[in-house]
Design a protein that fits this description.
single chain; about 575 residues; 4 domains; 9-stranded mixed sheet; 3-stranded antiparallel sheet; 27 helices; about 50% helix
Length: about 575
Amino acid sequence: MPKILAKHLAELESTKHLRGRNDAAKVERLLQSLGDATFRDAASLIRFHDALLFLCAFPQSRKVVRQTERLLQGLVPEVARLRKSGANMDPFDSEQVSGIAGTELRDTFTYDVARWLTRRYPRQVRAVWDIDEQSRALSAALPRFVPLLEDDSLVEADTPYLTWLSRAAGEGREMEWLLQQVHDSPLSPAQRTELYDALALELHWELEDCPASRTLARRPVQEPFFHAEPLIRRNQVSLADEFMGPSLPVRRLNAEQGEEILDMCRAAVTVRYRELYGTTRGDPRHVYEACPGRGVQIYLWGLPPERRLPLRAYHAGFTLKNGVPINYIEGISFFEWMEIGFNTFYAYRDGETAWIYAKVLHFLHQLTGVTCLSVYPYQLGHRNEEAIESGAFWFYRKLGFRPGKPELLAMVEGEERKIARDRTHRTSARTLRKLADGHVFYEIGQTERGAWDTFATRTLGFAVQSAMREEFGGSAEKMRQAACASFSRWLKVDLGSLSAVELGAFENFAFLAVVAPEIARWTQPELKALEHIIRAKAAPDETKYLRRLREHEKLRKVILRLGSDSAGGAVPDTG
C-alpha cells in the first residue's frame, strides 16, 4: 500500500475519537481524499470498510453520512477488482468481518435459515452438492419425497441422487423443491430441522450489492444523530441510575413491521455466520421498539407459542444506531431471573457500548419485569479467547456485576485491591480465564441477593433424567404418562380440554410431579395458580407467564431447590 494511502487509512480509523466542535470538517476532508483509494489486499479493504461503517453509525455531520454511504456503495466493484487480481480472498470469510458486499458466504445453514435464505434471496443462493459425501444421508431422507428411489438406492452403488431430484423438481430447482417438501411434510418443526440438517448441504450466498450485506444494511431514519462531542465512556454509565430513571418510550409494531425487523436481524446475524434460536424463529406479532435517544432503536420480541422453550421464557432482539445494525440480544428468563446474551458487532465496539448495553438492560427489565440479571461465562471468556483478549470480564464488573461463586468474588476483590495500589496493574489472561468460570449477577433494587447464584436449568433437567432412570427404567414415555396422570389429578385438569400447545406446556411441567411430589399437598388456590402459569406459557405473549411465575412463591422454592447445587458448583449453562 502506498505510504500516503496507509497514512490516510490509519487516520480514518482514528476518526472515532475526533468528536470536537471543528472535527467534522477534518473527517469530511479525509473522506474526500479517500474517494479514489484502491487497495491491493483484502485486509486493507476490510479496514477501510469497517472504519466507514463506524462513521455511518456514529457520524460527526450530515456530510460525513453522505460521504461514507457513497464510498461504501462503491465497494462492490472494488471487491470484484481484488478477486480478479488474484489476491487472497480468505480474509473476507472470517466471522469477524464476513458479510461485505461483493463477497460470498458458504455454510451448512440450519433448516429454518436455509429456507428463509432460498425464499428471500433465490437468485443469490445456490446449493453445492457433494453426492459422495451426502449419499448416506440422501438415501435415508429422500425416499419419503421421491417415489421408487429405494429401488435404486438400496441396491445400487452409484445412485444418481441429483438426477432423481432434478427429474422431480426440474433442473436448477432441486434445493427449492427439497425445502418445500420438508416444509409440507407432516413432521414437527424439530423433526423437519433434524431431517434437513442431517443432509449437511452447503449453501453459497453471493452477496453482490444485497441490502442484507454488512456494507449496505440500513433502516431509514427520519433524522440521524450527529456526534459533535466525545462518545459516552463506560465510566460515565451507572446501571443503578439507569434502572431508577424514567421508563423508556416503547411501542409495539404491527405484524408487517415486525416481520421487517425480524428479516433485518436474521440477515445481520446470518452474514456474520451466526444464528440465535430467537432471531430465526421470532414472533413478528410481538415486536417492541424502544428509542432511548442518540439515534438508537432497540427491538425485542418473543417466540410463537409452538416454538417456546419448555420452562424458561425467551426474548431476542437487536439494536440499530442511525439505522445501522450494531448488536444482537438474547434474554432467557425464569421467575425474576434472566440470563443475558449481548454481542456488539466487531466494527462498533468502540461506540458507546456501555451506554447502549445499559439501555438494553433497562428495556428488558421494563418489558419482562425481571430483576436479577446474569451473564453467561462464555461472554466473560469461558472458552472464548477473544473475550479474554478484550478483558470482557471487567466490562461487566465495572458496571456492577458480581461473580456468583464466592471464590471468584474473593479473587476479583483481590485484583481490585492490586489495581487500587498500582494503576498500571493489568489482570493476566490466566486470571481472567479463572474469573470467567461462572456467571456474574446484577440484582436490581431490593431483589434477593444470591438466590440464583448456583441455579442452572441443566441441573433441574439432570434431576428429571435421574428420576426417569431410577423409577421408569429410562423410558421417557412411561415417565410422561405417569407424570401427566398425577399432575392432571392434582390440578383437576381435563387434558382433553387443552389445546396442543397448552398440552405441551402441561407435559413439561408435569415432570415436576415426579421430582417434587410435595406439590400434591398444596392448597387448591396454589394448584389453581400453577394451572394458570401453565396456560400462560401457551399464551400469545410470554411476559404474562413470567409475571404469573413471580407470583407463585412455593413454585419458585421448588424450582430453586431442584435446580441449585447445594455445594455451590452448579453445572453452568454456558449458552
